[in-house]
Design brief:
Blueprint: E1 2-4, E2 7-9, E3 12-14, E4 20-26, E5 31-38, H1 41-60, H2 63-79, H3 81-92, H4 96-120, E6 124-126, E7 134-140, E8 143-147, H5 153-167, E9 170-174, H6 180-193, E10 200-202, H7 207-216, E11 222-226, H8 229-240, E12 245-249, E13 255-258, H9 266-275, E14 287-291, H10 295-307, H11 327-342, E15 346-349, E16 367-370, H12 377-380, E17 387-393, H13 396-404, E18 408-409, E19 411-415, H14 419-428, E20 433-436, E21 450-451, H15 460-465, E22 468-474
Parallel strand pairs: 1-5, 8-9, 8-11, 9-10, 11-12, 13-14, 13-19, 14-17, 16-17, 19-20
Antiparallel strand pairs: 2-3, 4-5, 6-7, 7-22, 15-16, 18-21
Helix pairs in contact: 1-7, 2-4, 2-5, 2-6, 3-4, 3-6, 4-5, 7-8, 9-10
The structure holds nicotinamide-adenine-dinucleotide.
Residues 147-152, 174, 176-177, 206-207, 211-212, 215, 226-228, 231, 234-235, 249-252, 282, 382, 384, 410, 449, 453-454 line the site of nicotinamide-adenine-dinucleotide (NAD).
Keywords: Oxidoreductase
GO molecular function, one term: oxidoreductase activity, acting on the aldehyde or oxo group of donors, NAD or NADP as acceptor
InterPro entries: Ald_DH/histidinol_DH, Ald_DH_C, Ald_DH_N, Aldehyde_DH_dom
Length: 477
């Protein structure tokens, strides 16, 4: 079993001052695979003090020097991609091929995109005729607490840490206690790249302990959080006493509007997208809204597609679906599937219990419900598992109304071959992102939500701006 109890604070690996042991469980086997330490308040104080001391120097470091260090980090990250893929696969259950291509791949693509944005960014911006003697200086917010979830660990860490570093912020990263191993590897890479001490600090911990200490700490200027809407609300309240900037990337319940004229692969694509990463993606299209004329055929295609998804341990090579992250999540999904049945949705494939032949590990059957009503629990709650709800609709107006009838507003999807309709839907859908006809978001494009999906934007220029103050200077010469 791996033992990694130290934190990375002020440029060194240090023993916890007030830590408690925590076992990381491999979700494919249900066996412990590592022991880490959960930080106490004294550890968090030490990390914040290091970030605070490092801030003036790092903020004043020229952007080109900050970029050069991030470029070095990117090279180290690429050279250790396989170690990273294995860590992610073990800690949160992503099949190894997916961990390599998508999980680790996303981390490095974000580094590329944010570096590009930083090189093109107008750090000192003229205002033209509006105010010819003024300039906007885009300047680092300060000390940032970064809190990340377990579902796409390196995707989230890269989006926050790279943008924060390039903006000139110093930081304390607290990754999810479910996926600390990849974050610890990342801290090793930061150390190897040679960032000045205190610029990046890492403590492990849970929400109630380190999470609360770091989001309420008076010397922290900003919290950048990705996780559940539930935790986002608690963090906003905790950060309110010191009026910190709070950037939130929260949950979703995306609708995938499939019109009768959609391309023939739309349903299959929607099912596979929903099941990707075992359904554990904030932007998963979990509500498939299908126009009545093609409804029966779509339900049949969806069931057939889900029926062909194979499930197995994360370490197996080849395309398949792994387990969900932990027992709590497994039980929650089982309860929600049962609720779907009890509330009258039609189960067309999957259901409760583990897939055949898998008696151990947090494996869930790829599950499709048809005839779902948007008021049912499975259509309202973020399930975070491989469960798709199919809902019929009649007209465009009807489809948009159902899609928008949710507290979330992260990503919605539209499938139609009518460009005018596609554009009308893109405008009418209340979400931070709309993806049409299988076109996925470009990496330089902003990622973030509306409503209870949060208020932050990550990726590209917008990701940088999240960590920057706008300072207006008049009389610039
Ligand atoms: P979670 O909210 O339980 O935990 C996320 C992180 O917050 C963890 O590091 C956890 O320790 C910490 N945390 C929990 N409670 C806290 C508190 N009170 N104060 C401070 N920190 C706290 O979420 P999760 O189960 O790890 O991740 C899944 C959730 O993340 C889903 O809701 C998913 O939609 C969301 N998510 C959103 C995005 C996005 O960009 N919008 C991306 C990925 C995941």
């Amino acid at each position: 079993m791996i033992e990694k109890k130290q934190f990375y604070i002020d440029g060194a690996w240090v023993d916890p001052i007030a830590g408690t042991d925590h076992q990381v469980i491999d979700p494919s086997t249900e066996d412990p695979c590592a022991v880490i330490s959960l930080a106490g308040e004294a550890d968090c104080d030490a990390a914040v003090a290091a970030a605070k001391a490092a801030f003036p120097g790092w903020m004043a470091t020229p952007v080109a020097e900050r970029m050069a260090l991030v470029e070095k980090l990117r090279e180290i990250y690429k050279s250790r991609a396989e170690d990273m893929a294995k860590a992610i696969s073990m800690e949160m259950g992503a099949p190894i091929d997916l961990a390599r291509a998508q999980q680790v791949g996303a981390g490095s693509s974000h580094m590329d995109a944010i570096l590009k944005a930083a090189s093109e960014f107008d750090w000192i911006e003229p205002l033209g005729d509006h105010a010819p003697n003024d300039r906007i200086i885009h300047e680092a917010v300060g000390v940032v607490t970064m809190i990340t979830p377990w579902n796409w660990p390196m995707n989230q860490i890269s989006l926050k840490v790279i943008a924060g570093l390039l903006a000139g912020c110093t930081m304390i990263l607290k990754p999810s206690e479910e996926s600390p191993l990849s974050a610890l590897l990342f801290a090793e890479m930061i150390d190897e790249a040679g960032f000045p001490k205190g610029v990046f600090n890492l403590v492990n911990g849970d929400g109630a302990g380190a999470g609360t200490a770091l989001t309420g700490h008076p010397d922290v200027d900003m919290v950048s959080f990705t996780g559940s809407s539930r935790a986002g609300k608690l963090i906003s309240k905790n950060a309110a006493d010191t009026l910190k900037r709070v950037s939130l990337e929260l949950g979703g319940k995306g609708a995938n509007l499939i019109f009768a004229d959609a391309d023939e692969k739309a349903v299959k694509r929607g099912v596979l997208h929903c099941m990707n990463n075992t359904g554990q993606s904030c932007n998963a299209p979990t509500r498939m809204l299908v126009q009545r004329d093609i409804y029966d055929q779509a339900v049949e295609t969806a069931a057939e597609t889900a029926g062909k998804v194979t499930v197995g341990p994360a370490s197996d090579e080849g395309r398949h679906m792994g387990p969900v992250v932990n027992e709590t999540q497994f039980n929650k999904i089982q309860d929600l599937i049962q609720k779907g049945i009890d509330e009258g949705a039609r189960l067309v494939t999957g259901g409760t219990g583990r897939p055949d032949g898998l008696n151990r590990g947090f494996f869930v059957k790829p599950t499709i419900f048809a005839d779902v009503n948007n008021d049912m629990t499975i259509a309202r709650e973020e399930i975070f598992g491989p469960v798709l709800s199919i809902i019929p609709f009649e007209t465009e107006e009807d489809g948009i109304r159902i899609a928008n009838d949710t507290p979330y507003g992260l990503t919605n999807y539209v499938q139609t071959q009518d460009p005018a309709r596609a554009n009308r839907c893109a405008r009418a859908l209340r979400s931070g992102m709309v993806e049409m006809n299988g076109q996925s978001r470009g990496l330089g494009s902003p990622f973030g939500g509306m409503k209870q999906s949060g208020n932050g934007r990550e990726g590209g220029r917008w990701g940088l701006e999240d960590f920057l103050e706008v300072k207006a200077v008049s009389g610039w010469t």
